[in-house]
Amino acid sequence: MNSSFHLEPGTLTLDDCRHFFRQHQPIRLSDNARGPIAAARQTVDDVIAQGRTVYGINTGFGLLANTRIAPDQLIELQRSIVLSHAAGIGEFMEEATVRLMMLLKINSLARGYSGVGFDVIAALITLFNRRIWPAVPQQGSVGASGDLAPLAHMSAVLLGEGEVFIEGQRYPAKYGLAQAGIKVMTLAPKEGLALLNGTQASTAFALQGVFYTESALLSAIGIGALTVDAAAASRVPFDARIHQVRGHCAQTDIAKAYRRLLASSGIGQAHAHCDKVQDPYSVRCQPQVMGAVLHHLRHSAATIVTEANGVSDNPLVFAADASILSGGNFHAQIIAMSADMLAIALSEIAALSERRTALLVDSTLSGLPAFLVNNGGVNSGFMIAQVTAAALASENKTLAHPASVDSLPTSANQEDHVSMATFAARRLATIYQNVAGVLAIEWLAASQGIDFRAPLKTSEPLQKVQAMLRCQVPFYAKDRYFAPDIAAATSLVQSHALADFIRTVIKIDIIQ
């Protein structure tokens, strides 16, 4: 087993979250967490002993908040809320999503403001460490009053209800508990509500969106730079002075990345004094457009990692003065709006990439053979590959429509404004899949263009970018069954291998 990750509640970094997104590692909760957890739990027990009426502890939920629950029904209340709220639908979350969601829920509960006992947190940690993942449907949350349905499916497993995945196979929850050495749990007052309430599903999806956007941006920088050489485009638009006078840090960083990738290119040196004045925007304005993507990626990432460390259930327990306060931290509007911006940013990566592919297949703009193939007419070359890129980029225009501006009241109008954060963040995976396909097609086209520029060579880093692809896909000499080429290139993009390589070359902190 891998060494354990030391979890100090409330201190997860973006690098930590990226690590858990890509792979599993057991976690070990800091001993410092035990005191606050115990103090909050004691505060809840004291409230019950004193007969005070507090929402979620001895009252109903939502519109039923004014219904007082008898002391002998408080345990049943917590079980009932978990089971009734496990109303999700659709495909199950991927393991990486559940892994992040559970990590964030553990991180939040362990801060000691939720009033759960240590045994509940320990059970979640055991399931996490044993890689026993609750089967959680993706759909059913509106991102307000918490991600109730997804978190209920996660929590129902502790009660022996629902299903789990173990090494990709589905089993009844009780089997999963037995494998983990956990007995079916009885939740104390407040524990069921604390497990269900919170933004951890939305935030897990949003974190994935951050990492998808980061990977797509890095890949687009490398592929876009390769297109600069394939199209024999000017380097002048990347001159540092142009970007310094505008003043946007992200734009300046992106221009620097292109300069580093294109430095010492033989193709660039060969046409340094050509009479071409300006290139199309898709090539010339890459620092401006990708800079805007980077700017908003950085802002969204900072927002989302703050939420990942936050306490977002309700009510909250403040043991220092024995207060239990009802508020609205479960409302995920800030995640919804951040996810909307990531959707736009991802879509713009694809939009610009598709335009560069269109440039390359147009011989009047690129100076390359029409549709990047010899013997045109007999061969159609990249003609329909560019159409596919256009189709994917166009799909993203609809998918990127903001979700955060939508709201549909729930719970008999008690919850009269919701965020739609879960969908806003969940759709980022679909958008990214489209982006990966568009970038893959440009990668194929740009590599084809570079081959046509022989014997001139691109820069050493970009030779490696092309070689990475050529290990999987050979030169397109004449028409062949095209789909496997696109599939292979898309898999390479989605593997993050290209993004990781570009990160090492440009030496710029994409997410600060």
TrEMBL record:
Keyword Plastid: no
Coiled-coil intervals: none
Superkingdom in the source lineage: Bacteria
InterPro entries in the cross-refs: Aromatic_Lyase, Fumarase/histidase_N, HutH, L-Aspartase-like, Phe/His_NH3-lyase_AS
Gene3D superfamilies linked to this entry: Fumarase/aspartase (Central domain), Fumarase/aspartase (N-terminal domain)
This enzyme's EC code(s): 4.3.1.3
GO MF annotations, alphabetized: histidine ammonia-lyase activity
One GO CC annotation: cytoplasm
Biological processes annotated in GO: L-histidine catabolic process to glutamate and formamide; L-histidine catabolic process to glutamate and formate
CDD domains per record: PAL-HAL
Location(s), subcellular: Cytoplasm
Protein keywords: Histidine metabolism, Lyase
Catalytic activity: L-histidine = trans-urocanate + NH4(+)
Biological pathway: Amino-acid degradation; L-histidine degradation into L-glutamate; N-formimidoyl-L-glutamate from L-histidine: step 1/3
Major localization listed first in the record, in broad terms: cytoplasm
Family: Belongs to the PAL/histidase family.
NCBIfam families: hutH, PRK09367.1
UniProt name for this protein: Histidine ammonia-lyase
The species this protein was found in: Salinimonas sediminis
Lineage: Bacteria, Pseudomonadati, Pseudomonadota, Gammaproteobacteria, Alteromonadales
